[in-house]
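Is this the right way to post C-alpha cells for a design question? Let me know if I should format differently. Anyway, here goes:
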C-alpha cells in the first residue's frame, strides 16, 4: 500500500537555511519553477560562478546566482502590472523578428515576465510580474485557476456542438481539452468560455475541432482580475489590496 508523507503545518521547504535553486530563481522573478528547471538543465544557471545542472540543488541567501551570465537580484521588490493586451502583440519578453512584444508596451526597467500566454491576435487581460511563485500558482494546471474569455465565431453554433465542446474534445492527436463552461449569446455567434487550464491556443483548437473558426478572442478575467477601465495597450500597477486578494485566492502567504 502506498503512503504519502504530509508536511507538518508551518514546515518550510528549507533545509538548514537553504532552498531549492528553482525556488530561489522563482522568488527572484527570473521564471516559474518549471521554467527555472529548464534553465538549470540547459546549463544557463551559475551558483557562485559555477554552472549547476542538478535540479535538486539547494542554495542559501548568501549564494550568488547568475542566469545567462547576468546577476540575479534576490532582494524582493515584486511588481504586478495589469495590461489590456492589444492585437498584433507577442506575449514574450523579446522577439528575434523584431515584432512588438507586451514588454514594449510598459514602462519598466525591472525584469518582468508575462503570466501565461495570449496568442498574437488575442486581446485582453494579461498580468506581468517578477513574482515567480505567484506566476507558478496561476499557470500550473493543478491549481485550476479560472480564465474567462469572450469569443466570436465565424458562424452560429448549435447548442449540441457547444455542449460537446464544453465536455472536452480532442484538440490534437492524444491531447484532450478539459471540461469547461460555454455560454451562448442569443445570436449563437458570440459566446463566453470559462476555462481552468491554459493550453496553447486551446480555445481556437477546441472550436476548430468542430469546424468553427474563432474570429475574435478576448480574455475578460483571470484569477478574479479584470482589466476594467483600461483601453487596449494601457496598463496599470495592481493596488496593494488587489495583490493581497490575489495571493489569498492563490493560497499564498
Amino acid at each position: 500500500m502506498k503512503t504519502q508523507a504530509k508536511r507538518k503545518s508551518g514546515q518550510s521547504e528549507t533545509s538548514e537555511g537553504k532552498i531549492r535553486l528553482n525556488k530561489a530563481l522563482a522568488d527572484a522573478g527570473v521564471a516559474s519553477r518549471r521554467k527555472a528547471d529548464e534553465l538549470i538543465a540547459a546549463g544557463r544557471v551559475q551558483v557562485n560562478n559555477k554552472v549547476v545542472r542538478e535540479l535538486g540543488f539547494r542554495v542559501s541567501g548568501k549564494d550568488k546566482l547568475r542566469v545567462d551570465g547576468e546577476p540575479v537580484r534576490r532582494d524582493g521588490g515584486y511588481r504586478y502590472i495589469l495590461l489590456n493586451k492589444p492585437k498584433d502583440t507577442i506575449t514574450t519578453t523579446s522577439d528575434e523578428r523584431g515584432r512588438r512584444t507586451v514588454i514594449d508596451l510598459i514602462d519598466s526597467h525591472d525584469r518582468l515576465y508575462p503570466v501565461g500566454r495570449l496568442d498574437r491576435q488575442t486581446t485582453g487581460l494579461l498580468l506581468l510580474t517578477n513574482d515567480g511563485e505567484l506566476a507558478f500558482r496561476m499557470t500550473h494546471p493543478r491549481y485550476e485557476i479560472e480564465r474567462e474569455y469572450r469569443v466570436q465565431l465565424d458562424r452560429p453554433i448549435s447548442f449540441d456542438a457547444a455542449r460537446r465542446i464544453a465536455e472536452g474534445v480532442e484538440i490534437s492527436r492524444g491531447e484532450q481539452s478539459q471540461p469547461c463552461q460555454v455560454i451562448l449569446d442569443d445570436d449563437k455567434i458570440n459566446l463566453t468560455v470559462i476555462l481552468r487550464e491554459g493550453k496553447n491556443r486551446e480555445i481556437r483548437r477546441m472550436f476548430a475541432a468542430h469546424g468553427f473558426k474563432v474570429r475574435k478572442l478576448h480574455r475578460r478575467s483571470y484569477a478574479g482580475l479584470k482589466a476594467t477601465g483600461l483601453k487596449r495597450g494601457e496598463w496599470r500597477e495592481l493596488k496593494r489590496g488587489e495583490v493581497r486578494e490575489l495571493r489569498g485566492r492563490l493560497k499564498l502567504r
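Format looks fine. Someone answered above. Worth noting: Confidence is low (pLDDT under 50) at residues 1-14. The first strand starts at residue 19 and ends at 20.
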